[in-house]
Structures are given as C-alpha cells and as structure tokens.
Amino acid sequence: MPTLLAALRERYDIHCLVDQADPEAYLREQGASFDGVVTSAFAGLPDEVLAALPKVRIVSNFGVGVDRINLDEARRRGIEVGHTPDVLNDCVADLAFGLILDVARGLSEADRFVRAGQWTPERRFRLSTRVSGKRLGIVGLGRIGQVIAHRASGFDMAIRYTNRRPAAGVDFGFEPDLLALARWADFLVVTTPGGAATHHLINAEVLQALGPQSFLINVARGSVVDEAALVQALQNRVIAGAGLDVFADEPHVPEALLSLDNVVLLPHVASGTHDTRQAMADLTVANLDAFFAGERVISPLHS
Length: 303
Ligand code: 8YV
Prior knowledge:
seven-stranded parallel beta sheet; globular
C-alpha cells in the first residue's frame, strides 16, 4: 500500500524483500541487519524468512489475521507481534452482510441476468430467499462476529453463536455444538481465526447439517472450510449457496465454482476500502513506532 510504504520510509530505513532480485541470497547476506519486519496477513512470515532475521525484535502485521506467522517461534525468540484488530471490524461486517444479501437474493446472478439481455417481457428473474427475520449462526464470535451480530439485529434476525467458550458480555444464544448451530441456522457465517485450531472446521458433516435451504458465508480464512467438500455441497445442492471472500489457496479459486450460480465469489476484499486500509496502515506504523520508542505496541497479539 503506497501510503503505508511512504509513512514507513519517512521513519525507517526500509528494504522490501519482494524487490530483491534473489530474495534468498539477499536474506543470507543482509538478514542479520534488520531490527523489525512489516508484513501482511496475505504474505505472512515464512519460517525460513524469520530464521534469516536473527536480530528482529518486532513484527508489525498489516491485517488482523496472523495465521501465516509462526507465533510459537516468535514467542520463543521474544519477538513482539503487532497486528490491526478492530479498525477493520465495520468493513468486514459490512461485506459479510453484502454476501448474505447477495447470495440469498441472487444479486450478482440477477446482475448477470440483466447484462446478458435475459430480462425480457416474457422472462422474469427467479424468486429468491428472504434475509430479514431469519436465523444467523456465527462461528467464532470475536470482534468481527460481534459487529456482524449487531448488523443482523437491524434485520430482525435471531442470532446464535459457537465458540470454545461463551463470549463475555453478550446475550446471544451460545451453542457449544457446531453441528447443532448449523442445523438451526439459515445463514452460517464463519469469523474464526485461521490456523491449525480451525482447519477444516466446516466439513462435509457441517454442510450436511446446514442443509438445502441454508447458506454458508466465509469472511475468515479459506483454511477453515474443507473446500472440496464445499464444492460438492454446492454442486449437489446439499446447501442452498455460499458467499465466499476467502479461499484455501488464494488467489486460486476452484474451477468448479466458476460456473455455479449459487455461490458469490469475492477476491478477499472484506477490509478493502480506502478508509479501513488507511486505518490499518496507520496502526501498522503506530505499532512499530511504539515499539521503537520503548513502549508496548498499541495492538499486541498477546495482551
Ligand atoms: C488482509 C485480512 O489483511 O486482516 C486480515 O486478516 O485478511 C485482510 O484484511 C488484507 O488483505 C491485507 O493483507
């Protein structure tokens, strides 16, 4: 992000790994001279890069998700990790609702219908599914999940959630059993962190429980959903549809999804507004500045 790079250049001596002709050789020769790292949720910090940076004491992540950073290793080495929670909650929640409305009401499909000249005096678009008043199940009621629940109350939706334990200070129904939540929900929205603990949490059994009238929305990480099982569920109408902003192997989107009308496909854009990305950039820099000023980073991972 140009404004992030500009702000970093004003304060620090910046070297971009992706600009190096031979990043591996560069790390071998120069890695020991770096004090800090800025990375993104998408790029993460591969183990071999972290290993080549022996003096690094701070990693500032542009993004809330840190599933591509080896946190155990960072902790072992005493490296502080900052990220950008909260500033993106509104935009991610807005987009989750965009996906709910789109896939249930068929907005993208209807747009394709109009553009293809199929709206004629003889032909009307198919009927779709009402959103207001329906049941919303949230998988992982963290910061973003809570804002989605807040949006949903404006749509008079009933809300339940599953977490490892009940969330403090909320009065939505806690459902410890993911399968029971899936059976109950008309819309199942995934807002868990990625990583090993949530890998393929949404599997064929959960999709079966969600059922043919209900929809899956994923604004978390592609790794949380068994993508092959989801493709099958969408092809065989095991579920009604899905709204996806994230995929297992971005930017690769399974070919089989491209021809299906019951799925809305977005290129990981939930936080992608000027407003929110700038707020994320500001926090990325502020975390670094605080650390190098000898203070605690503003939004540390382990608070
Ligand atoms: C990305 C995200 O940060 O914050 C996250 O975890 O997934 C997004 O907001 C954004 O694509 C920059 O990598």
